[in-house]
Amino acid sequence: MPVRTERDFAAKVHCFNAGYQKINDLNYDIIGNLDADITFDSDYFEFLLGQFERNPRLGVAGTPFVENTSVIYNYNFANIEHVSGACQLFRRQCFEDIGGYIPIKGGGIDWTAVTSARMKGWKARTFTEKTFFHHRPMGTAENGKLKAWFKHGKKDYYLGGHPVWEILRSIFQMKSKPYVLGGLCLFIGYAWGAISRMDRPIPKELMHFHRVEQMQRLKNILLGRNRTVEQIDGRM
User: Fold this and answer.
1) Out of 29-33, 104-108, 157-161, 223-227, which region has the weakest mean confidence (pLDDT)?
2) Which CATH superfamily is domain 1-138 in?
3) DSSP letters for 155-187
4) Comparing C-alpha atoms, which of 133, 134, 126 is closest to residue 82?
5) Phi/psi at 215 (nearest 5 deg)?
């Protein structure tokens, strides 16, 4: 692929699609992508392929990732039905149903794919029994941490996040490093996207589905009904 001089997340989709075209004639059931800055155990893919074999409605699968020595998300609050874009495996039929990845320059291609899969009725799942190691802190390529949080806020806006969810997410982030400033930059980024009326590159039906999910999750959290891994397993 041509050499790029600027960081562009859409380029990841174009590169993926270039490889995707090369396997049109192959017979396969599972397709995936992984970033170049991760490592994992030798039985990592065997574990994930086993999950697809056990559940025919599983469309997207992955695991949490570790940076430094800690799992990056607290899965008591993070959505276990999302799968990190650093390593995503798709059932072929699911990937074809969602039309593949959308080339969004500013990022969010992984989120869009997984959320579209759930909207189409497929199951998506992060399996916490395994992890992979991410060698570069998330969102810090060419960015300082505060700038990275500002960009996260803008991305939350153009991916259609609900403003109530974003306010509470920003407050929650304030208690983590960089204290207060990270959450503040997250909210300012979202507000900047709204004030400047950033273009939203996702379908309206996906934005509506996303907001309904966010409000249901918020309701569950506030009522102490946040679903456990066991409950999600039972539903799957």
Assistant:
1) 223-227
2) Spore Coat Polysaccharide Biosynthesis Protein SpsA; Chain A (3.90.550.10)
3) HHHHTT--HHHHHHHHHHHTTSSSTTHHHHHHH
4) 126
5) -70, -35
Mean pLDDT across the stretch 157-161? Answer: 97
Say what the pLDDT of residue 230 is: 47
Mean pLDDT along residues 26-39:
94
pLDDT value of residue 33: 93
Q: What phi and psi values does residue 96 have, to the nearest 5 degrees?
A: -70, -35
Q: Domain boundaries in the chain? A: 1-138
Phi-psi category of residue 22: left, alpha or beta, with phi > 0 → left and psi -120 to 50 → alpha? alpha
CA distance 124 to 61: 6
Could you count the other beta carbons within 10 Å of the beta carbon of residue 18? 10
Supply 213's token pair.
């999910």
What is the average pLDDT value for the chain, to the nearest integer? 90
- Per-residue confidence (pLDDT) for residue 223, from 0 to 100: 85
Query: Which residue is associated with the tokens 């799968």?
Result: 83
Q: Is the pTM of this model over 0.85?
A: yes
